[in-house]
Amino acid sequence: MSISVCIATYNGALFIERQLSSILIQLSVDDEVIISDDNSVDSTCQIINSLQDPRIRLLKNTHKSGPVGNFENALRTALGNIIFLADQDDEWLPGKVNETIALLEDYDLVLSDCQVVDKKGKLIYESFFHYRNSKPGFWRNLYKNSYNGCCMAFRRDVLDYALPFPSAIHMHDWWIGLLVEAKGRTYFYNKPLINYTRHGSNASPTSEEGYSFQVKIVNRLLLFVSVAKRLWG
């Protein structure tokens, strides 16, 4: 069973080597790490290339700019039977791959818990699930999303109905999570498997802070309509 780890990068030089080291040590020689870079202007690509690991495929984002398009660019080329999503600035904890794969024998998508840390590695929250009151369920997660892409892994056949991403959605991980809630089997694994780094410049926020109430409502309506069209339209 082969694995594809899909990462979207943009000016991630500060943390990308640490993150890749934590990932690669858990993969076999037949697995791959697909990195789609959204025209970074720092040394992100140079750091990635300096690792000279044949499992890494570095792509330039030729899709829509931003995290959603950047992740789609990576996912479109994934070859593995199991897909992991990862952010450029986190750190995988030992056992993440093996524990997740074991769970995916019975589920289509696994969302694991994570420890939230600052840029120096200082613990902020021991459990994102506890902080967010995370639980499965379509309507619950449409109302209050817990689907952090960096904590997600899923079977390849999820891509058959998740791609292409609709232009109306603003979060790729929320989209994938809701689709599998509606169509497949999800599992919330109550064990932190990554250090989720919050440093103030993250491309994907942990919540919708900064959005107006009206925008939040519109985002949910667009997501719901997009899911309905994809699955039942």
Automatic annotation (TrEMBL):
Keywords: Transferase. SUPFAM superfamilies: Nucleotide-diphospho-sugar transferases. Pfam families: Glycos_transf_2. Coiled coil: none annotated. GO terms for molecular function: transferase activity. Signal peptide: none annotated. This is Glycosyl transferase family 2. It comes from Spirosoma fluviale. The lineage of its organism: Bacteria, Pseudomonadati, Bacteroidota, Cytophagia, Cytophagales.
